[in-house]
Every structure is written in structure tokens, then in C-alpha cells.
Amino acid sequence: MIRPGLVSITFRSLSPKHIIDLAAEAGIEGIEWGSDVHVPHGNPALAKELAKMTKDAGLCTAAYGSYYRVGGEPVDMFPRIVEAAVALETKIIRVWAGGVGSHKPMMPPDSASPMMPSTSPISPPPPV
Q1: 63 within some domain
Q2: Beta carbons of 94 and 64 less than 8 angstroms apart
Q3: Contact 7, 34 (CB under 8 A)
Q4: pLDDT per residue over 66-90, tens digit each?
């Protein structure tokens, strides 16, 4: 089912409380919290507080926008990102594929992605 949501970075200059209030007022059901402004990784206490505020307003955390660049950042920083997502009570973490901005294609659309090997260390094992 598709549910209405928003990405917190749409409102970079607003506080999380203000974003939650606006989302609830607008009938939004979920928020993807961004790590660049509202929920930086490495601060699980803030993430837990934000999860509670979100839930108390009748909303859910739809995803965590990590800004992690697959193949462009150290894999050893990913556990902090997972920690933040767990604290936010979401199972979805958005990552970027590589270091090229979305305005420039990385490769022809019909070619295999060179990012695939870089996703193995951050991907869960397949279900048994």
C-alpha cells in the first residue's frame, strides 16, 4: 500500500518538531529523517527522541536518509548508520550509489553497475 510521506530535508531549516507538526496537520503518515541535518549518525539518543516524537504524533519513520555513498565511504561507518535507523525504528536506510551526483549519469543504462560489489558489506544476508 502506498502511504503519504515526506523527506525531512525538504524542510532543512525547520526543526524536527515543526516538521512533525506540519506533517501531522497535512495528513502525512511517515517521515524519512535525513542524517545531514535532523538526525546525524552517531547520536542514537537524538534518534530515539525523534522516533518517540514522531510516534507520539501518530506518524512513523518511513526511512532513514543516510547520505552514505556506496563505494565512496568507509564501510566501517555503516554500523553507526544502522544504529541510527534502529533508534528511529525503521528498517529502511536510503544510500547513494557512488560519488557522482544525480545530475550526471554514472554509466549507460544497459550496463551492469560497478557499485554492486560495494553493497555486499552493508547488505543483509539473504533469507534462509
Answers
A1: yes
A2: yes
A3: yes
A4: 999 887 888 899 999 999 999 999 9
